[in-house]
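ok here's Histidinol-phosphate aminotransferase family protein, seq below lol
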Amino acid sequence: MIHLNANDLALAKSLAQLKAASGSHSPSIATLKEALPSLKITIDACFLSNPYATDLFMQELESKLLAKQGLRDALEFYPSQNHIIAQKLAKYLHIDSPHIFIGNGAIEVIQAVLHNFVQTNLVVPIPTFSSYYEFVRNDAKVLLYKLPKEQNYTLDIEAYTKFIKDHNAKNALLINPNNPDGSYIPYDTLRECLARLRHLDTIIIDESFLHFAYEDSSLEQISYTKLAQEFSNVVLIKSMSKDFGVAGLRAGYGIMAENRVRDLLRNGYLWNVNGLSEFFFNLFSDDEFLQKYERVRRSYITQTQEFFKALGQINSIKTYPSKANFALIELLNGTKAQDLCIKLLSSYGIYTRSCNDKIGLEGEFLRIASRSEQENAQILQALQEIFSAC
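and the structure came out like this:
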């Protein structure tokens, strides 16, 4: 068991208050720094992003915007409208721009889709990202489908499609890879699932962690754009903060039928992206940037999977298989997840995510994001020291 001293307990109390104010999401680093200025956070293993991609974006920002005196323009003038920024992504996504809806972060796309296109009910596999069952319309019913722990919380399409049929559901959600466990549905299996569900009004596929997934040793990027073109009821939702490491920019998009994009644009979202985000979206027409990104993406996947293997060697924990950039960790020795999160933060400056508020999980769990190779080594050392002392 982990022993918390007086300072740990005081920190736990402060964090509990901040967490209560943040709802089902973790307090941001900015919030923690402001509320707890004496707290030293050296590694953010709570929020989920590729740090090497952040480095790459900073290089582009400095060389193409700051060095060329473009920052004032990005701040002083209105950015392009939603449909113009969609055109910047069209080539990269291999789809015509009228199918693309740009969001101020994926969360805005989620809200827009749920409020406009999910009017009766929605099947949500749990555990998963809480916004999908929190942000539905008041007149829509959420049907929770519990993923089995004995199958490492992976989705069985036979059981899932049967559940949808038995409940006469009209809309369904698939997050692939899933959050918080990182389980992955192979492309062909996913397509088979969509074919069985082509009668639904809407199938939301959240692909926010897809750049970290792979199906063979080539680590080729996986794309679901063709699935959205094949199945007209599919809506793809993508956060850019995870794979490109730019959460502060609030950049995301959705891919869907043209008439749905038109409906959303008629209901607002004219200038919902800021000037710095537009600079980021402009990079997707830059082949050199995309080549650099592809190199850091593959390298990060390799390092991340090595990190997960090392986590799996630590006694007293179970590391669930993941093809995202985070691992779901179950504590097996009676340790409380929140106590471990506090000890990592207070003694090592490592910020992680307790999953006590994730419905659908049975046991004590925390989620640990993969960071740089050096930071991952520090996380491993901290965990080994903590559990060797238990």
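fwiw The radius of gyration is 21 Å. kinda neat tbh
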